[in-house]
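Tutorial handout. Part one gives the primary structure; part two gives the three-dimensional structure as tokens.
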Amino acid sequence: MNKVKLGISPLSWTNEALLELGDNISYETCIAEAAQAGFTGIELGRKFPKQPETVIATLASFGLEPVTSWYSGFLAERSVEDEWPEALPMIRHLVALGCQVMVYGECAAGPSAGSAAALSQTPPLENLDLQTYARRVTDFASRVSESGLKLVYHPHVMMPVETVDEIDQFMSAAGEPLSLLLDTGHVAVAGGDYGVVMKRWWHRIGHIHLKDIRRSVRDTLDPHRQTLDEAVHEGVFTVPGDGDLDYGPLIRRIAEHGYDGWLVVEAEQDPVKAPPLAMAKTGFSHISELLEHHSIPFDRNPRHDHG
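Part two.
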């Protein structure tokens, strides 16, 4: 059985969009605590150095590897030829870092009010010409693959592909060069069951975000009044072991069918309310215990603090 690789997102320390969340936390603190929690990889964030050689050297000094990064795409509105020069700097950066995947997040065709839109105001996928859109993303994925990266599509709350049904429609229309990112938390906040997506699209899943939710928060949100940003501030997302999702089915699936990729713990939280190191340790402990229960090998960071 292949080893599973455990990584973490820097979002527990510093939010990418909500600049007030963790803006005071340094890159050095983030990677030191990620290593201390036990992880061997980390996704990129806005505090990371811009030079690939600096990223590699600083991460290696803490026993970490760069995993991947989010790319904000606009293929719902523009052609692959127009998208490519915008994406090329990120592609070159990830290749230079030795990454294997690139995360695509669709940032066009969202709600007209942007981040001020209420959760219920996500434009449905049917607003797009699905076949045209899927063909563009597929062609883009094929071109990215020529650079040595696998493009993984990130279904996301408030974006065109959000629900389980929309994931099914989009992935059915998109071609094989495109892989799927399974984000357990976004599927749940959109009202779905990650297990359904997992079973239907396992052969196309190329990256996994272990993002948990607090149902007590989700169920009290007013979708007609509150925004995704407000939901984050209120604590709708958390790490595995602190939330309500059951990761047993996912780990069993890996044990039975294998998975050649990263499992990345990700939680957008207010670091004042949810101390990042404690949350990172909780997420690592919960997932590592499940992996051990199913005899799935993985590495711990040499700097792992078991306390």
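Part three, for discussion. The chain is about 40% helix and 15% strand. The mean pLDDT is 96.
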